[in-house]
What does this fold into?
Amino acid sequence: MRAVAAAIGMALSLGTAQAQPAPAPASAPLQIREVGSMHVGGRVATIEGLPSQEIVFSPGAPPLRINPNGQFMVEGMYAQYIRLAEPRARFPLLMWHGGGLTGATWETTPDGRPGWQMFFLRQGHDVWVSDAVERGRSGFARSPQVFAGEPVFRTMGEGWGLFRVGPNDGWNAEAGQRRAFPDSRFPVAAWDQFTRQSVPRWVTTDRQIQAAYDAYVQQACPCVIVVHSQGGNFAFNAALNAPDKVRAIIAIEPSGAPPAGADAARLRDVPHLIVWGDHFADSPFWTNIRTNVERWAGAIREAGGRADILDLPAAGLRGNSHMMMMDTNSDEVAGRIQAWMTERGLMR
Amino acid sequence: MRAVAAAIGMALSLGTAQAQPAPAPASAPLQIREVGSMHVGGRVATIEGLPSQEIVFSPGAPPLRINPNGQFMVEGMYAQYIRLAEPRARFPLLMWHGGGLTGATWETTPDGRPGWQMFFLRQGHDVWVSDAVERGRSGFARSPQVFAGEPVFRTMGEGWGLFRVGPNDGWNAEAGQRRAFPDSRFPVAAWDQFTRQSVPRWVTTDRQIQAAYDAYVQQACPCVIVVHSQGGNFAFNAALNAPDKVRAIIAIEPSGAPPAGADAARLRDVPHLIVWGDHFADSPFWTNIRTNVERWAGAIREAGGRADILDLPAAGLRGNSHMMMMDTNSDEVAGRIQAWMTERGLMR
It folds into this structure.
């Protein structure tokens, strides 16, 4: 009930926000101080006892005898930053992707529109986009010697229902035969293009992913974190581990939250905004997750903190999918988030 | 002999170049039109016959029963672009990394200096940085069902000799015990940080990598390609496959070249610059590669094309490693390359 009341309150609040910033015109050049990247965290792992291999690395090159044993740098993560000449946000914005994806989530949308990385740059934020351990430019380690188990690969169709673009049985290998929700905001004609962003994931590496995110926070923060799906729980825990470093969390459909009993009082000074798209009624899976996450939001509020819920349909935005940063109204959703950051005093 | 003469000629030419552009001051903001990315190429692969799995993707989330069979989008590649408001280069600069690495090669150096991505942005180029198939944000496909064989992982020490930072026996797990070449330009104190950039690679995927690069060229070019190490052969072949699209190739220690008999005449209008660092005398492996690559450069010249050799020690720059874009004189090396591009008429 509390969550529902908060959701309605947020919807009203955001719908009438007076403090909308004036974004840079889309045609004006961005004034960029620096583009760069770093790798952070990780550890040295030693592998022993594997047989040697002879490998031709490039056509025409002589074979090299490789000893696959030795020391390996593993479990670090990659982050790219784009720093503005004169940021208007008080803190850099760190964008953390969800499961089976990389930082590309935040870049150009699958149908070729500027993504949230560009949106928030134009709004005056220094923007950092990272890849979690094992994903993207963070690289992965040998299995099962370093990462337990095997990587999981996402089929082209799995996300269709899971990301609430359409009903679970709406997927079809033939693009013309797919059934989306009639009001879906996902650019469905670009679905196959979206699936090019998929990367494999392990499901055994939460501890390592968390450790690298914690190291990242120590290096890049104070900051505001925008986090999606699987990343949500890592961001909540990163804030619990460094509440002085994380100045706000905007969680886009987080798929998990700290367990009951976690010390929500530590997040009293870390305002949270949790954003949900549409079509939860079609998804018991997401309804369960939402209940769990909103219990955590309630715990933060009960501890004296702030945890707002932005329920997009209640706020008048219908048809948004789990991948709302790619939806056709992605800028409008981002605008609601920007308004919340402005209201929270996170802009200069 | 021809290659040596060309090398000396280039050294003299670059040493006295009058056409050095005036780069934007390091303190002036870059004027950026757009930051974005895309995935290009790839195909749909079908996997059948694997048993289903039940997986908990996030702590607290209910388990999902996953059928690992189905259709997968595989073998595409990722590219990020940074477009200037007013580029001074005539064509975008595409930067292709080497083996076991990603596009991060071109970004901030391991010791935290701006890398070649920033250098060439400041010189007025639109810069595209990509990840080859399987690497980084391009993602990898299931082995052995899609990619034959197993990934190869690079030890922390393998590159020390292979990249000619020091002698092959100069590596030691203890940083204080490592022996670099006395004049090495690699920032050796940042070696461990550099190894965080390593990613696994397959050695069975050249055809797929080439296909995606070819698709990338069709989408992003006309262009100039700066390519490193393993990427070299892909760039040479990409130019053979689309000589109208590739306006120049700058190959940084390419590790391979097309075979004898490849039609070098197709590259008559594609000027090449091949750049070599120092300490080849210590590396029969690289000496062999160099002979092979310079044979290809000779074939281009004999066919009426232009293939210049920039031998850095002969040009007065000593101690450069295979990772010269990270060496302490990386800007100076890049400056020689920029001078060549200017001389070749590639700037406005």
Summary: The CA atoms of residues 23 and 123 of chain B lie 5 Å apart. Chain B touches chain A through 87 residues (CB under 8 Å).
